[in-house]
Amino acid sequence: MILNTNARSKAPRYRRPDWSRLELPDAAGARRSIVVATVALLLPACVSSGPGAPDPGTGGHHAPGSGGEVISGRANGTGGTHDSAAVLGSGGAPGFPGAQVTGGRTAMNGAGGASFAPSGNQIPSTTSFDTAGPYKTTTVNNTGPDGTFTLFRPTELGQGGVRHPIITWGNGTGTTPVIYSAFLTHLASHGFVVIASNSANTGTGTEMLAGVQWLVDQNAGAGDFADKLDPTKVGAIGHSQGGGGALNAGADSRVTTVVPIAPAPGSGSLKGTMALLCGGQDTIISATTLCTSLIYNRASVPTFFGILKAATHTTAIGNIGGYRAPATAWLRLQLMGDEAARPMFYGPSCTLCMDPNWTVTSKNL
Length: 365
Fold this sequence. Notes:
This protein has a single domain, classed as 3-Layer(aba) Sandwich (Rossmann fold), CATH 3.40.50. 15% of the residues lie in helices and 21% in strands. The strands form four sheets. The chain has a nine-stranded mixed beta sheet with strand order 8-9-11-10-12-13-14-15-16, with helices on both faces. It has a three-stranded mixed beta sheet with strand order 3-6-5, with no helix packed on it. It starts with 21 loop residues before the first strand and ends with a strand. 52% of the residues are buried.
């Protein structure tokens, strides 16, 4: 059920990020500075808070299942709901052997529906990473450490014994989670519990790791999350400065995988896998210099590097456009064991390898 679909969150005004000096580690561990143009990170005209908002710069894909009423609350969901429009139904394709997923969606955009019969630690599968998953979702504002985080989660946790992976999100400079709420709600509909710092400066990764620890503590406690999360499956993802925060958070051994999107450079000492996603038309974070030279080339972990040819820096706001399906698929593969996502990234004939909209490379996969 959708609650008050006419309710909309007021988007904040954008500040111009001043990245006049970025401190970057070189190969020997010293720090040096590069100059980056001071630009407007985001444009208010690119955002629509309604369901199915068009993706800026990518032709207007639509993400079903957003919308709904968001009510400020405190920890453990005591403050209202944001129910997505994910439709549950019968049928669905069978899960892949050996994967942690089961059931499936028979078609996109609500034709058919998801088979919601998880058992053990299995998450329902999907045949579309681009559309909403089978879980209804709840958004809780002003929660987490010191009430300074926003939480996006499945409304009902632990169905069929499922333990949900944890994702921590980092915002771009001068932004807050409301700018990315369509995508973060999308991740929650796929079974992830997403915690997002309300800070507009998440580049160090400190806030992102604080959110992880808070959820780990909640899982070990006696509240709503008790024994319903999987602290061994943690993903860090973010955009722009928050992408750099995801890289820095990835130096923590608790983080299983990172998905930096058009990121500022961060730590090269990752402990888990990485899907690095950058834009071919991005004039702020260049795919050929910053992404390639300072992030991909320095990585020693298993890494997939995809350049979405038509993407600009603002493509990765709202429901994050053409980045949405690969980001969702990578997180499902790495954190849920969803083998249906593997062909998108692995092998010389991988789905994105053959997609003319992408330029891809990888190492250690």
